[in-house]
Amino acid sequence: MRLDKFLKVSRIIKRRTVAKEIADQGRISINDKIAKSSTDVSVGDQIVIKFGNKTTTLKVTMLKDTTKKDEAYDLYEILNEEYKEDYRF
Q1: What whole-number distance in Å separates Cα of residue 52 and Cα of residue 44?
Q2: InterPro entries, alphabetically (predicted)?
Q3: Structural domain harbouring 14
């Protein structure tokens, strides 16, 4: 499954176009390699996503083409979330 579609189906990122933009900016890596939106995602892959001041590391546990909102959280497991504090005034 494509990275952008996985992020949308799992509801990590709400829209596929936004997932594509973030991936194409080099802010997502799969198994320590920078990923594009078309990169294939497999079960067991470790994905690191850099959102503004937050970095989320997750592991893909299941792949489905469509999910209901309640089932979306079964597709991944969050391994780590780090927040950078911004001290600019």
Answers
A1: 25
A2: RqcP, S4_RNA-bd, S4_RNA-bd_sf
A3: 3-83
Q: What is the CATH number of the domain that holds 19?
A: 3.10.290.10
Contacts of residue 18, defined as CB under 8 A and 6 or more positions apart, other chains included, come to none
CA angle 4-44-36, nearest 5°? 30
Instruction: Specify the number of domains making up the chain.
Output: 1
Q: What distance in Å separates the CA atoms of residue 61 and residue 43, rounded to the nearest whole number?
A: 5
**What pLDDT digit, counting tens, does each position of 37-63 carry?**
999 999 999 999 998 889 999 999 999
The pLDDT of residue 78 is: 94
Token readout for 43 is 């079960």
Identify whether the C-beta of residue 76 lies closer than 8 Å to the C-beta of residue 37. no
The 33-34 sheet, strands edge to edge: 33-34, 28-30, 46-51, 54-60, 76-83
